[in-house]
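Exercise (ungraded).
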Amino acid sequence: MKYDSAKFVVALDLIGIFVFAVEGAMAAIDANLDLLGLMVLAFSTALAGGIIRDVLIGAAPPAALRDWRYAATAFAGAALVFGWDDFVRQIPYADLMVADAAGLGLFAVAGTGKALNYNMPPFIAILLGGITGVGGGTVRDILLSRVPTVLWSDVYATAALAGAAIMVAGLKLRLPPAFMTVVGAVACFLLRVVSVWRHWSLPRVAH
Amino acid sequence: MKYDSAKFVVALDLIGIFVFAVEGAMAAIDANLDLLGLMVLAFSTALAGGIIRDVLIGAAPPAALRDWRYAATAFAGAALVFGWDDFVRQIPYADLMVADAAGLGLFAVAGTGKALNYNMPPFIAILLGGITGVGGGTVRDILLSRVPTVLWSDVYATAALAGAAIMVAGLKLRLPPAFMTVVGAVACFLLRVVSVWRHWSLPRVAH
Amino acid sequence: MKYDSAKFVVALDLIGIFVFAVEGAMAAIDANLDLLGLMVLAFSTALAGGIIRDVLIGAAPPAALRDWRYAATAFAGAALVFGWDDFVRQIPYADLMVADAAGLGLFAVAGTGKALNYNMPPFIAILLGGITGVGGGTVRDILLSRVPTVLWSDVYATAALAGAAIMVAGLKLRLPPAFMTVVGAVACFLLRVVSVWRHWSLPRVAH
């Protein structure tokens, strides 16, 4: 299944990277890391998902390392938090959550589209969309020696997978790629935001 | 050193994946993860070893992502545990351990064989057989924020390395590949089972 | 930016691997791991940085797995610690720190040089030099379920990045590669040693 990535997704990518980098840098401060740790967490949270995807689909060197602007954008997010932590902390949680949900949707569809371009099977492309969305936060949590939040809390990876699945389903039905990219990203975004608003969580087996 | 992988190893692979996925899903429940976490742990425990091996030998995209049946088998194991946890918990520990030992033996020889096919040096192919066998459990433990069991307990990776080494030694002596594959897997299986039965452990330096 | 790697860097590499392997094995004993864990930590601490770099620049299989001597050197370091732990523990901390700083400098410039050879942008090559230097210790800490030391303590990754940056800056100015390799390694070494001696640390944001 071939997929023509829309140029505007690439541009929006940098916005998602900035948002995720800011969140990674804030987590670094909460964990009392130093400036180097803050930069590493900003970089990892923003770019590790895409790097893991690219390594897995055989697209090494990853896009995030071919082009210095990705890393520069992540470090710009780190610099904002390092220099103006007080300002960043004043941003309401709801605003950060909404920006994060937008980034998640963008990463999910961008990741799915790239996986399809590399001829991955549709089912695997959906998984890779999910990994692109949540891989950065997972690496951040591993570096902080925590069980990744995505494994036990909230409807987060599920939203990314749902957006990716909707996009792939639409492409299977030969709907226009640009249209399905937007639909998939919006679906992920809405599912994420509504799930936070309504306090949804996934089922678990009691033990 | 060239090695012709026997078709039946590929088929048995899926059985090993199912067993490892069941164990990963059970560990997810013990750690109070949600359904998404259960699926991720089943997937990782079953497939991360082979994925790491394939990335390291330059065989990206990994087999586990080229063919949707690998992931589907892992998720089938996850579904079994999620839907019938009570049933799975009734399986005696000894049965699970024996099934796991069989999976370990299969993964070790399959991993070693694939590494040899990709022209890795024999000594490195043995290490990659070990990584294929224990990589999934290691990633599972890292995701659960634990020191991987394989690093401090039991004779587990050692059994995988021994089976891989016996297989490579036999191939060096020009014994038939299919025969040495079986011998290596059985050697790993027996060493693992006997070591649990006799409570063997590796030496360590007192500190 | 092309870079001709000096042969002597490759030779010195093995010394750095040995030093890092000894440190990884000592950390394994401190964490009460068994012999297998000790070998894994020696291997990971010594080689994971270079392996991650090679996977990221698209140089799979990594150099550390193409040539059995890298792994053998790491295991030799493990064997030294396992067999003569009392002897190794008598080495003064300052000596170990100086040897480690030398290894860090070598890894940083070797990693940067290899990244340039694979046509990575200069800014990214500096990051990859840093990853080559600190990747092993980071993987060691993750396997020990700890927040990697490099993220919150000392001037360590910063020294590696500084050495890499100086090397890249010199190459940009068309200074001789062999000369800039030495300058970069020495700069990293000196910055690391002086920072320990003067108890320097990076700034952090109070939280």
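Further reading is listed at the end of the chapter. For now, observe: Chain C has one domain: 7-197. The two ends of chain C are 42 Å apart (CA to CA).
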